[in-house]
Automatic annotation (TrEMBL):
Gene3D superfamilies the UniProt entry points to: NAD(P)-binding Rossmann-like Domain
Name of the molecule in the record: Short-subunit dehydrogenase
Membership in a protein family: Belongs to the short-chain dehydrogenases/reductases (SDR) family.
UniProt key word Oxidoreductase: yes
Keyword Transferase: no
Transmembrane residue ranges: none
Keywords: Oxidoreductase
Pfam families attached to this UniProt entry: adh_short
Organism superkingdom: Bacteria
Lineage start: Bacteria, Bacillati, Actinomycetota, Actinomycetes, Micrococcales
């Protein structure tokens, strides 16, 4: 696998770039001197303002904004064609866009909660990657794909059934894609799957971290993701307690794990006061 030290002179595409961690990734790309920084978000007006500000930054980066609904396959396809024609294929793709619904499963609306969550969180990253991956493979130069999943995709939690299922899907697809690229000799395209616990972006407002699992700052997470992406690290779990929980859950009988997760780590009550953005 070819290594990357920075994204200087590279094309970087970020979904969900109008706020939160997506915006931080964009700012990081500009700071490192990326040739082109391509911003995707469904909030087109806000994205244009951000692009104008970043284009005014000293340096060589050209920042492009595209209003894209990651939950709409047609929007993805049409805008991917525009990017390929107007800018060129990205060398770095960060599938960051996502939504969360913090409810019991039977409280979810079918269209606006279940289908929308699966479209944006699970299907969206697949379709975006499918649109650009052939160009990445053919480019035969170091390329990176970052798929933002969640610790919820590995460790179940009440009031997160649909969100967790979407992130389980991302983890399974993302790591399978990594293996396929390696198996077929496309080692220059590295896939990093990211599974963090709660981050203080506002997306999980009201949620509290389990015992030994502090809520992380977006700046800290972006820094860890960026370093892992450049190194081509296959899987990034954050914080360290997610590693412990993953292993412990795999070793213990389900009934014992449930008691430990609930009574010791208070994992199963973390979403009780969730409000979201």
């Amino acid at each position: 696998m070819a290594t990357k030290r920075t994204v200087a002179h590279a094309r970087v595409l970020i979904t969900g770039a109008a706020s939160g961690m997506g915006l931080l990734y964009a700012e990081r790309a500009v700071a490192e001197g990326a040739l082109d920084v391509i911003l995707w978000d469904r909030n087109g007006e806000k994205l244009e303002t951000i692009a104008a500000r970043l284009n005014a930054e000293p340096g060589r980066s050209r920042v492009h904004s595209y209003q894209v609904d990651i939950g709409d396959p047609t929007s993805i396809a049409e805008n991917a064609e525009r990017v390929l024609a107007e800018v060129g294929g990205p060398d770095v793709l960060i599938n960051n866009a996502g939504i969360v619904r913090g409810k019991y499963f039977w409280e979810h609306d079918i269209d606006s909660d279940i289908i929308e969550t699966m479209r944006i969180n699970a299907l969206g990253p697949m379709l975006v990657t499918r649109a650009f991956l052939p160009r990445m493979i053919a480019g035969n130069r170091p390329a990176r794909i970052v798929n933002i999943a969640s610790a919820a995709g590995m460790i179940s939690n009440p009031r997160m059934s649909v969100y967790a299922s979407s992130k389980w899907a991302v983890i399974g697809w993302s790591d399978s894609l990594r293996l396929e690229l390696v198996q077929q000799g496309h080692r220059h395209v590295a896939v990093t799957t990211v599974a963090p616990s709660y981050i203080s972006t506002g997306m999980f407002a009201g949620a509290r971290g389990p015992v030994l699992t502090p809520i992380m700052t977006p700046e800290y997470v972006v820094d860890r993701v960026w370093t892992s992406m450049l190194a081509g690290k296959p899987l990034l779990l954050m914080p360290w307690s997610v590693h412990i929980a993953k292993v412990t859950k795999g070793l213990l009988p389900t009934a014992i794990w449930d008691q430990m997760a609930d009574r010791v780590f208070h994992l199963y009550t973390t979403m009780e006061k969730f409000t979201g953005r």
